[in-house]
Amino acid sequence: TVKDLRDKIEFWFMDKLKIYLGDLTYNTIAVSTEALPINIGYIASYCKKRFGLKVEITLFKYHEELEEAILESPPDILGLSNYCWCQNLSQEMFKVFSEKNPNGLRIWGGPNFPLDIPSQTKFFKDFRYFDIYVPIDGEIGFSNIVEKSLTVNDTNIRNTVLKDSIDGCVVRNLDGKLLYTFDSTRIKNLDEIPSPYLTGLLDKFFDDKLVPMLQTNRGCPFSCSFCTDGRDAVNQVNRFSKVRVKEEMDYIATHVKKNVHSLFISDLNFGMIPGDIETCNVITDIQKKYGGYPLKILSTTGKNKKEQVIESIKSLHGSLALSMSVQSLDENVLKNIKRDNISADQMLALAPTIKESNLDTTAEIIVGLPGETYDSHLDTIRKLIDAKLDDVIIYTCMLLPGSEMATPEEQSKWKFQTKYRILPMDYAKLHSGKNICETEKVVVGSKDLSFDDYVALRMIAFTLWMTNRGLLYSALLKFLRELQVDVAGLFFQMVERRDDAPEVIKNVYESFKQATIDELYDSPEEILAKIQDDKFYQDIISEKTALNVIRYHHAVVLSKCMDEWTSYALTTARDLIQENGILNKKTEQQFSDIENYCKGRSHNPLGKDRMLTNPEFVFHYDIGKWLADSTDTLLLENCKMNKSIIEKFVLTDEQFHLINDNINFFGSSAVGYTKALKLVPSHMFWRKPISKVGGSTQINDHTEWLEYTQLV
């Protein structure tokens, strides 16, 4: 039409506002933050809706591409997201931009921003190379900046825009004074934000490096003091429509690369919010329609209403684990972190229901919380182990800007001992030749916890990570419970008796302990100065330091000494049985079958020859039948077979290709392995038992018939 032609002519000749938006990741060893940048996609799509052809927006994920684009053709506005994993990198990009276009606007936004005004003032002083901060839900605040910029008639946007305050923003004016507005208006009907997927804005990020991210709602009803989402400003939960979510999931599934098997869901309480059941049903339909994608879903499930959460996610057939984010089970600690409105007892009471629903369960706890002691932390671990959760993950407490716990008052109140760490994989050499990295502030002691206690608890955390994960040692742990042997004691004793471990395992423990101590620094300035030393930087590149200590040592064990780790765990368990006075002829034979089952399951999970090394053992008990009894009423002695059988332990083609795809995705270095293993469901590492029965081959594990189809 004439109007279409006129619009096109106007588009080509109009003076558009040029905007670059970046949600940056490091990419030195492998992609460190692999989530597709949906956050800046939302901001871009909202701006395009408001301003149409008046703006020209380009999105960036990789800092190298952004730096090159700034140097070649700087924009009028550079907007970057601010998280703990990209803060220093963003500042360096702002510096580059300031040199190329000193009249351009530099906008920062995201949760990594202090709550109290004195700390905010210090933040602006410490980070000089930006003009405006957008602290909450960026669409409105950023579009208000764009709206004001569009009224400027000369090339010096900064001179005009920074004169006055802007709704939803903290502005640093040209004199360095901070101009505040406290308008925290959020978009309630999230469908007002056009989908960055359905509009094609994110198409270029469907590469062989990034994992798609879905968001179905925003906000969190809880007020946890250690979390940046515990603020009153984001307590209201707002949703996208069901139709929108369905269309986006279909779009993602038809665009994702074949070597990408995972999906992030950024919701803070997935499964708990009304409508989440429908979302799970949509994902299930997508899995059926598109060959199983997503195979693994990474999300944080709801902290309350666990019955509803179970009902929501059980249709996903194990692709999403149910997370029990208890953080602590000590009543005083929960009160200290404003988490006493979350029922941990209710979570644990639902453990049998969870098992009946065939859901994997993950419990998360934090070392170093206010009021937590060594003994209370061990007590939390013991209770979670007794609840038979599949995976207990222990994190070090981070003091996140934007959380209440990071305020000066809280740090002083609890006498936190703090140190700084280099974030694993978050380092790079920039175009200028400068070395850069990210740091995090962590709690390694308090008035209630010594540093030695902290190190000891980290050793236990690693042991749990290795030995209490899903299917791997399920037979051993169930057998200990059947004999009424303290299961948590197994993990504690593995740490206590590590000097008696095989030499290779003793070395792993010593390496882990030393790395836990060596990764700590007194200040971020110390780290940023040290990384300028090219020898130190090369040590980082060579994976001698700046590692995720638990995940790195996990990868080391899986790739180099898994058989020895299993033997050590079994030896420790046998000693505990003997010390309890219940090792006799019958339990000895039962333990022998358990021992062989665990050895077969865990053998050579990552070796290049893993498809060829298939161990065989003789069994007298039907271990698969016994494990399949989720009620724990069937005793192992009642599963003795009339005739012993030989079982071979194998990996399926599906397991082999899934692990290989993820290793190829991130690289075969130790750090690459740590990232790759994160995206592989834990049960996919371990071998399947096969026996010959009546001349035919079958999986002898009653819970894995579906997976067996991959073998035949």
Q: Could you explain how this protein is built, in words?
A:
This protein is of the alpha/beta class. It has 28 helices and 21 strands. α8 packs parallel to α9, α19 (503-518) packs antiparallel against α22 (549-560) and α23 (562-579) runs antiparallel to α24. The chain is globular and about 90 Å long. Mean pLDDT is 89; it is low at 694-712.
Q: If you compute it from the alpha carbons, what radius of gyration comes out, rounded to the nearest whole angstrom? A: 27 Å
Structural class: alpha/beta
Q: Please give the share of residues in helix.
A: 40-55%
Distance between the termini: 60 Å
Helix count from the secondary structure assignment? 28
Question: Could you give the order of strands across the largest sheet?
Answer: 2-1-3-4-5-6-7
Chain-wise SSE layout:
Elements: H1 2-13, E1 17-25, H2 38-51, E2 55-62, H3 63-72, E3 77-81, H4 87-100, E4 105-109, H5 117-126, E5 132-134, H6 138-149, H7 157-161, E6 170-172, E7 178-180, E8 213-214, E9 217-218, E10 238-239, H8 242-255, E11 262-265, H9 276-289, E12 296-298, H10 306-313, E13 322-327, H11 331-336, H12 344-349, H13 351-356, E14 361-367, H14 374-386, E15 391-396, H15 408-413, E16 417-429, E17 435-445, H16 451-467, H17 474-482, H18 487-496, H19 503-518, H20 524-530, H21 534-541, H22 549-560, H23 562-579, H24 585-602, E18 616-621, H25 623-628, E19 640-650, H26 653-666, H27 670-678, E20 688-693, E21 696-699, H28 705-708
Parallel strand pairs: 1-2, 1-3, 3-4, 4-5, 8-11, 11-12, 13-14, 14-15
Antiparallel strand pairs: 5-6, 6-7, 9-10, 16-17, 18-19, 19-20, 20-21
Helix pairs in contact: 2-6, 3-4, 8-9, 9-10, 16-18, 16-19, 17-24, 18-23, 19-22, 22-27, 23-24, 26-27
